[in-house]
Amino acid sequence: MIKKFLYFIIIFIPLLSCSVSKISKKEAVYDKKSFEQALVEQNNIKHSLRADAETQPVISDNITDDCADDPAIWYNSKFPEKSIVFGSNKKRGIHSYDLTGKQKQFISYAKINNIDIRQNIVLDNKEYDILGGSNKSDKSIDLFIIDSNGKVKNKPDFTIGLGENFKPYGFCLYKNPKGQFFAFVNDKKGNVFQIKIDIKNNKFLAKTIKKFKLNSQVEGMVADDKNEKLYVAEEDFGIHIFDLKNPNNKSEILNGSTKDNTKIRFDIEGIALLPPHYLVASSQGNFTYAIFDLKENKYITSFKIKSNIVDGVEDTDGLEIYTGYLNKKYPKGILVVQDGFNFDKGKLNFQNFKIIDIRKINKLIKKTTHP
Ligand code: CA
Ligand code: CA
Ligand code: CA
Ligand code: CA
Ligand code: CA
Ligand code: CA
User: Fold this and answer.
1) What is the whole-number distance in angstroms between the Cα of residue 285 and the centre of ligand 6?
2) Which of 93, 124, 257, 300 would staple 108 via disulfide (CB 3.0–4.6 Å)?
3) What is the CATH code for 32-369?
């Protein structure tokens, strides 16, 4: 364990030092000192997993660009092994990959920050699989219809303008138990909009039905369709739980997601649901992930992802989980996480996404809750 860590320090820190010091970005970890501090903090987290695959790097101008951000997973019901991982590129569009990480599509058109997918949405008596994203270039929400092969067009099928004064940031989709379809979008001021989406006579319609505001910068959001809850990560505060059945927008705090939990280092970034009742959050400040039990409303444990066949994961923005059979390698599903520092053969490359067998997380939960 210690030997491995030392190996990491000796081999990687000098490489990181030259690359990281050049990075000038406005989000999370950007300088050598905070990077090294995060690695020290990461070392305090005991549980360590390995990624099983990584995607091809995203496309950008400079190797130090912070551009990969948020994944989404499309399940191919006919051929599960042909399911698709989508990944946003917040400088230029959306990429898609097969389960080995090979790029399938690159939709280069706008700064897409966060993306999400809902499948089998029935609108105007027709069924759709829809990919949505928050578009920073055009201040809009963009929707793409996903075809039966997991492909989307090179331009969105529908764009919902949010007005000149709203700069979209975090984003998620929501299908309630009645089958109604919604998008949630937030901005850096903490504003959250809920928008109802419909199709009438082959035309998309959108209507903002709810607006509320949190105290500081938010981004990561995920909706629990079955239990009608919305989870919103206030980056430097913690995770809020909104009961979508309650019209008053009253929220609770997810216990153990605030600064009283020393295992978490802000920002809290991407959040994803892990059925039956868990939530995984990126604790970006210490390059780890926190697991919460939503039924008990409590923190369970944290883990990190270290190098093996692919490099370890640092500074994760978005993450996503799919549970269910995909292929022999992933019979129970996958966790996909963005990697802020993608190394290939010890050299910094463009950012990418890592794929992890979800059984590793399930095993960790079992070990922690039933030791
Ligand atoms: Ca980032
Ligand atoms: Ca997502
Ligand atoms: Ca953020
Ligand atoms: Ca990495
Ligand atoms: Ca982000
Ligand atoms: Ca790599």
Assistant:
1) 21
2) 93
3) 2.120.10.30
